[in-house]
Fold:
Amino acid sequence: MRFAFNFTIILVAAVAGLAIGRFMHPVPSNQITASNAASDGSFNTFFARFFQRVKKVKADDSPLATKLARDLSLSSGVTHWLQWMDALENANLSDFPRLVQLAKGNPTLLKVLSARWIEKNPRNLYDTLLASGDAMPKSMAYDLFAEWPKRDLEGVIAALSATNSLNGWRMGVAGDIVDIDVERGLGLMMDWHIENFTPRLTKVASWAATDARHAAEFAMSHPAGFASSEIMKVIGNEWAKQDPAAAMEFAASHPGNLSSALAESVLKEWSKNNLNDASKWLGATDATTRNRLSSSFVESWARQDASAAMSWSEQSLTGNALARAVGAVVKSVGEKNIQAGAALVAEMTPSIARAEAASAIANKWIPQDFFSSEKQPIPNEAIAWLKTLDSDSTKRALENTYWRWTELDPKGLANFISGLSPDAIPEGIYNTLARSLARQNPKAAMEWTQKLPEANAAQASTEAFSEWRNSQPAAAMKWLAALPDSDTQKSIYYQRVISNLSYDPLGAEQLASWTPSEKATAQPLVEQLAIMPDKKAKLLEALKVK
Structure:
């Protein structure tokens, strides 16, 4: 030991002496001989290598995790768990990121690790998740926001408020708060600009029942998209049980979408409980308010007496308000008996009102559960009924339902619309149908698009080809390469492919595998793309023929 210590002192002194000597008496570069250059080089090389090795020895950021990894590699079974429990018991905050890496692929371990991290310092876990991006398991964020608000709600809110790009986390937290404190949760949703999310509304009814007017005023002053609209409907239901006339006066004096949602909800509930009083109030109000709210009113009325509701609509309303009201009456009839509702539409003369009524029945008749493993067929009665309608009514009926029909039976829809006049076919139906057919049989879909009206064929065939290439890229590109250059669609197909690849993270790699001929075709199309310069440069580099 004494020897080692003395040797170290001598070595350090020698190095220091040589360094000082070189500093005090530097050797001019033009006087260095071959021998002293060699010795100088060997001396410098020794210490350069020594210090290089020292630099390469990276400080261990978690000796505990390093030891655990080694211990785990030498053990198995129950011993693994004992070693993990011991490590978690003694872990510092700086150890947790490394422990997460060791636990990846084991959900149970990650759950335990999350719980321990949250117990020690939830804000530290939050900061780590924020800084690591996708490097940390998503399950840890779920665990954090399930537990942290119970421990420190204000801390959670402060953390989320400090960063603007966390809507996924914010939605979950704000939704949970709405379920505890409606006003606090709705206020956060407004502050955090959460507009396309509806939280659980279990607490809203009891909150509104306490003071419905205050609830409505608060909801109006804290707009938060879908959530506010749904909350306002619940408020309307509760206020209608207490004082529907006051609720309607309030809604009438506060124009806007939220007041409309409130009024419609109140009027529906009021109509169920006291149709006569609701009818009197609506009849006595101004024409603008009556036209705006009539469809909700007659929909409820029609459940009790469809004929009377229809008569009132025809006597009290005009234009679009009448059309919406008739549609609501027919919808209400159709919910009880779809055939009766369809017959009612069939008896009507062509008009805006008939078109709205046809839309209501079609929306009810065309199956909606197309994500089910057993898809329901389109009823033959529904298809036969659609064929009897005028063009405007057929078009309106298809507008809200053709996308469902496309998923359920694209061939059947293709056959159906082939017999329709152009003015009965909704915009966009050919493109949607082309994509759906391409998923089943790409070549047949391409052939089908060639038979479409000239104004629709080009775009539909492009959509079909794009869908084909998404699912079967090799076959689609082979087909495209075989098209004659005289085919005007060929360059359009290539244009779509290039456009899609510009958004694909692996787009450059795909272009690099193209043939020289395909690359030559693609180059001018890439140059025309309106994308970031660095991305365009990467694509163009991939197109170089090597």
Observations:
- The chain has a mean pLDDT of 84.
- The chain is about 75% helix and 0% strand.
